[in-house]
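Internal QA ticket QA-208
Title: Verify multi-chain structure generation after dependency bump
Assignee: T.L.

Test input:
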Amino acid sequence: MRPLTDAEMKTVLDKLANYMSDLKSLIAPLEDGDRYVFRLNHSRVYYVKLSIANLATSISRDALLSLGTCLGKMTKTGKFRLHITALPILAAGARHKIWVKENGAQPFLYGSNVVKAHVGRWSEDCPEHQGCVVYSMADVPLGFGVTARSTTEARRLDPTGIVCFRQADCGEYLRDEDTLFAG
Amino acid sequence: MAPTRTIKNKQAGSKSGGKSGGKSGGAGGGRSKTGAGVSKPRSGAGSKSKAPISASQIKGRPNLPGLDKKKKKKVYTEKELGIPQLNMITPVGVTKPKGKKKGKVFVDDRESMSTILAIVQAEKEGAIESKLIKARQMEEIREARRVEAEKKEAERKAKLEETKDSLRKKRKKADGKKKNGDDDDVNVKELASAGTKASKPKSKKRVSFAAE
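Actual output:
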């Protein structure tokens, strides 16, 4: 387990900035004087409290399975891929949101993209190919994706047209159970 | 200069001593000693004449083989030679910058993290803003085009209607004329067909079978 390098940190924050509007809250000091830090172990990036990260140094790298919140994985080409486990953090400071109706929640959780007919609401002024967090109508975050059309274009779209390309959904907790946390 | 020559001659003499020993002996009286040295083993002759010769050698001729060995051969670097570089890919990890500390530089303190964060956020904001502006501009252009197309369509329709109306009017006029001037027309036609035999009323030709 080690802290991120300059380039790695930039890559991770760049990806998070696609979905979040306020990044500064990520590293803001907590009330108890502690703060959150990013740690890398087995090419996975974890968002964890500094105190816990310091405790975790007593565990060997091979034996350490996970700590804090896993944000995603660094690929071998140096890119960063967000995992569904990062959803609570993304949802807390989401820049753009899409709310899907009851009839659209299940198809989304099964891994399909969001079509216009399933959209209940969406945030205004959302450009094309921008990260957005998908919520149910009861404001429960279901996953995240990338907008296929801007809000104005999406209005003219036919009901079967794709509005948002899925990136990750909560169904992955079951579907990718064996590879999500290790391997 | 001269003593070195003697050495060379000595060696030459020693080499060629077997062949022309008499010749060297007969060259001069002063060399008779050396001539004797030739006949002796080489080592003995060398030891005798080494000390004085070596001193004069250093003075007279510095580039002796012994001294040459001490001189260092200059080693040229690739840059100095100016050899063109091979056209191949150098992997990222292979070229190491000189004078830099080995290993990764971690970002763990809050200040550097917040600096990176601010840079990233500013970049992203800028990108999103430009995206939005671009989208708005495109939307305006599309709207303008749509309005223009609608206008053109309306104009075309209006023109079509106009032509339709004009055609209808013409037709109506023609119909009206027909209604009004129907009898006249017939009369004219009749007159034209009758020609000069105007008095004879036109009658249909009748065919009848001849009665037997």
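Spot checks passed. The two ends of chain A are 16 Å apart (CA to CA).
Status: verified.
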